[in-house]
Write a structure and sequence with these properties.
Blueprint (H helix, E strand, L loop, with lengths): L24 H21 L13 H6 L19 E6 L8 H6 L4 E8 L3 E2 L3 H10 L3 E7 L7 H13 L11 E3 L14 H19 L4 E4 L1 H8 L11 E4 L17 E5 L7 E5 L3 H9 L1
Parallel strand pairs: 1-2, 2-4, 4-5, 5-6, 6-7, 7-8
Antiparallel strand pairs: 1-9, 2-3, 8-9
Family: Belongs to the glycosyl hydrolase 25 family.
Keywords: Glycosidase, Hydrolase, Signal
Organism: Streptomyces albipurpureus
């Protein structure tokens, strides 16, 4: 099966009204429940954002994209090409049982390293070193917050705190997690052109620091909304698409094929589960650059 420069295998082609103000006991109960649900919905609409640093891959995908309707056993079923199972983890997974994941068939992993210029994953060492020690090829990702610092500043923060790359055949290039803002405006208050510029600055600085082109993790609907279907990164940066369904679906502008696919956020084991679009040797190829 042919592969591209990213090591990606390409498959061949109503309520009733009453006249009397008479309320039964059950009516009182119904009114109470109605008030409860009404107050709950108001609280949900104005709830406090999560604490800074708690964001992770796919957090916005579930909240904003309406994904996750299919049960886990029906996701990730695309049979067109050989695929290699992977996971991604962040601090909310805590200490991960990497040998168990390896035994389940997981061969590669991404670990959240940083967010913005203010947060490093406190479980980073256990997760990053543990995945490597179990035999996995692993990489790190950065959760972008374009409203808090420039792209270049966040790339530097990432590289200096776990996002660097080494040519050891076991380290994947860093990934930029760019998706819905869990702390506020979906597009971080940026125009579409402003978002594209922010992403470009991050990618350029990451390449200048590491010699590698970063992976871009995103969802098609976010990309359309916040970049205006910008197509200029597809020729260089591998795509990691988020879609919890039986296929990756329509890809963002600029990419004709995904390198990785996050197909569920609720697998049978810890972490979000992913498929690399190719056999294990292609994962190695991406690690080697």
């Amino acid at each position: 099966m042919p592969v591209d420069r990213f090591g990606t295998a390409r498959p061949h082609p109503s309520m009733r009204s009453f006249r009397r103000p008479f309320i039964t006991t059950s009516g009182v109960l119904l009114i109470a429940l109605s008030l409860l649900f009404s107050s709950s919905s108001v609280a949900a609409a104005g709830e406090t954002p999560p604490p800074r640093g708690s964001a992770h891959l796919g957090m916005g995908v579930v909240a904003h994209d309406g994904q996750g309707a299919l049960p886990p056993e029906q996701r990730g079923l695309e049979p067109e090409a050989t695929q290699t199972e992977g996971v991604d983890v962040a601090s909310h997974q805590g200490n991960v049982d990497w040998p168990a994941l390896w035994a389940s068939g997981v061969k590669w992993a991404y670990v959240k390293a940083t967010e913005g210029t203010y947060y490093k994953n406190p479980y980073f060492t256990q997760q990053y070193d543990g995945s490597h020690d179990s035999g996995m090829i692993r990489g790190t990702y950065h959760f972008a917050t374009p409203d808090t610092a420039t792209g270049a500043a966040q790339a530097d923060y990432f590289v200096d705190r776990g996002g660097a790359w080494s040519p050891d055949g076991k380290t994947l290039p860093g990934a930029l997690d760019i998706e819905w803002n869990p702390y506020g405006d979906a597009c971080y208050g940026k125009s579409q052109s402003g978002m594209v510029t922010w992403i470009r600055n991050f990618l350029n600085q990451y390449r200048a620091r590491t010699g590698r082109d970063a992976v871009i993790y995103t969802a098609t609907s976010w990309w359309t909304q916040c970049t205006g279907d910008y197509a200029g990164f597809g020729a260089v940066n591998p795509l990691w698409i988020a879609r919890y369904n039986t296929t990756p679906g329509t890809l963002p502008a600029g990419w004709s094929v995904q390198t990785m696919w996050q197909y569920t956020s609720s697998g049978p084991f810890v972490g979000d589960h992913n498929k690399f679009n190719g056999a294990l040797d292609r994962v190695v190829a991406l690690a080697n650059g």
